[in-house]
Amino acid sequence: MKAIAVRPGQPNSVHLAEVPTPSMASIPDGRGVRVRMLRVGIDGTDKEINEGLYGAPPPGEEILVIGHEGFGRVEEVGSEVSDLSPDDYVVPMVRRPGGSLYDRIGFPDLSTDETYYERGINFLHGYLAEEVVDDASYLVKVPPSLKEVGVLVEPTTVAEKGWRQAVEIQRRLRLWRPQRTAVLGAGTIGLLATLIFRLRGFDVTTFARTKKPYLNTDLAEAVGARYYSTQEISLLEAANREGPFDMILEATGYSPLAFEAMEAVGKNGIIILSSVTGGDRKVEVPADRINLEFVLGNKVAVGIVSAGRDDFEAAVRDLAHAEAAYPGWLKRLLTHAVQGLENYPLLFNDLTEEKEAIKVYCDIAEF
Ligand code: BGC
Ligand code: ZN
Q1: Which residue numbers delimit the Glucose dehydrogenase C-terminal domain (predicted)?
Q2: Which residue ranges have their beta carbon within 6 Å of ligand 1?
Q3: Which ligand 1 atom is the nearest neighbour of the CA of 307?
Q4: Is 43 a member of any domain?
Q5: Spacing, Cα 306 to ligand 1 middle (Å)
Q6: Separation of 157 CA from ligand 2 center, angstroms?
Q7: Tally of structural domains, the chain
Q8: Cα–Cα dist 68/155, whole Å
Q9: Which residue is closest in CA terms to ligand 1's atom 7?
Q10: From ligand 2's centre to the CA of 298, what distance in Å?
Q11: Are 196 and 165 spatial neighbours (Cβ–Cβ below 8 Å)?
Q12: Which residues surround ligand 2, an ion (CB under 5 A)?
C-alpha cells in the first residue's frame, strides 16, 4: 500500500513509499481492527520530523510512516471486538504503552520511561497511509455527524488533557472556579483550547503575535474570546492592566512565554505548558520574584504531553458540543486540504508560515 514516510534524522526525506499492508494477525487476541484512513492532519511535529530533528523508525527499519492526527473508517474487526463495527468512524490514539508502571496501568501518556512509543512519531508507523491495523482499545469512535472535522480530534486532546490535569490538580483548593483564563497561541491548538474554555463558560483572552484583522483572530472572537496581539500588548501588561489569570494554557512553541506566564498567573492559579520546544533558547527571568510569588500565591505549573483515552473521548464530546454551540466554526479551521497521498509535497508547503495555515490535512480516501 502507499504511505508517506521519512528517514528519521535525515532532513527533507519525506517521500511516497510502498510499504506492506498491515496484517490483522499483528494484533493478538482477536482485538485487531483494520481502518481505512480517510483524512490525516499534519502539524509542527511532522515538520520537525521531516527536518530530521525529531522522530525514530520502528526498530530494525529505516523509514517511519508519519502522521499522528488520524481519522478513518473501520473495514474489518477481529473476533473479540464488540465495541466497533465496520463503517464506524474512528480516531486512533497516538501513544502506545512502554514499560513503566503508568504504561502498564493504562496511562502511556504519563509514562516515566525515557523511550516512549508514539504512532507516526517515535518507533511506530503513523497514519499517512491507505490502511492501519490497531488494537480496538486505541480506537475512539466518532459520530458520523463529526466526520468532516474528525481530523481535529487529536489536536483537541491537547486542550482536553490540559483541562483534565488542571481539574485534578486544583482539587487541592476544594472549590476552584476559574474565571479569567488565557490561551497563548492562536494556531490549531490555541484556537481549540480557546473553544473548549469558552464551552465551559470561562472568560478567555487569546494572545498571539499577529495583529487583527486575521482569520485566527476572527475565529477566537467568534466563540466569544478577547484577542490580543502581543505586538500591541504583552501577556504581562494585560495581566497588570486587567488582572491576573486563574489559568493560562501555553501553546505557542515560544518557551520564554512560559516564564512570562509565571508572572501573569494569579494566586492559586495554574499554568499548563503544552509546547514541545526542541531548541536551546535562553532568557533572563526575575527569578526571586517569580519564586516568591509562586510560594506566596500557591501557584502551579504543569507540563502535559500526548493524551489518554479519556481525553480523546472528551474531545469527541466537545467537538459535538461545538458544532451545536457554534455551527460551522470547526470547519473554518480546516484551511488547507491536499488531495491524495501522492500530493504529499503540498502538505509541507502549506505548513510554511507564509501560507497562514491553521489545519493542513490530506484527504486519502472518499468518506
Ligand atoms: C502530538 C502528541 C505528542 C507530541 C510529542 C505532538 O505533536 O500531537 O501526541 O505526544 O507531539 O511527540
Ligand atoms: Zn501533534
Answers
A1: 148-360
A2: 43, 45, 68, 94, 118, 121, 276, 305-306
A3: 9
A4: yes
A5: 5
A6: 10
A7: 2
A8: 10
A9: 45
A10: 31
A11: no
A12: 43, 45
Instruction: Give pTM, 2 decimals.
Output: 0.97
Domain around 179: 157-303
DSSP letters, 256-305, are: HHHHHHHHHEEEEEEEEE-----S-------HHHHHHHHHHTT-EEEE--
Contact (CB, 8 A) for 2 and 130: yes
Last residue of a domain, one of 303, 326, 343: 303
Same domain, 161 and 288: yes
| Domain final position from 284, 303, 322 | 303
> Are both 192 and 89 inside the same structural domain?
no
Same structural domain for residues 185 and 131? Answer: no
End-to-end Cα distance, the chain: 19
Walking along the chain (367 residues) 10 residues at a time, the average pLDDT comes out as: 98 98 97 98 96 96 98 98 98 98 96 97 98 98 98 98 98 96 98 98 97 95 98 98 98 97 98 93 97 98 98 98 98 98 94 87 96
Minimal-distance CA residue to ligand 1 atom 4: 306
Phi then psi for residue 335, to 5 deg, are: -80, -30
Question: Whose CA is closest to atom 11 on ligand 1?
Answer: 45
Are 189 and 295 in the same domain?
yes
The pLDDT score that the predictor gives to residue 278 is 84
Whether residues 128 and 161 share a domain: the answer is no
Ligand 1 atom 6 nearest Cα? 45
- Do 171 and 297 lie in one domain? The reply is yes
Pocket test for ligand 1, best of 47, 192, 305 (most atoms within 8 A of CB): 305
State whether 120 and 256 are in the same domain: no
Same domain, 15 and 136: yes
Residue located nearest, by CA, to atom 3 of ligand 1:
306
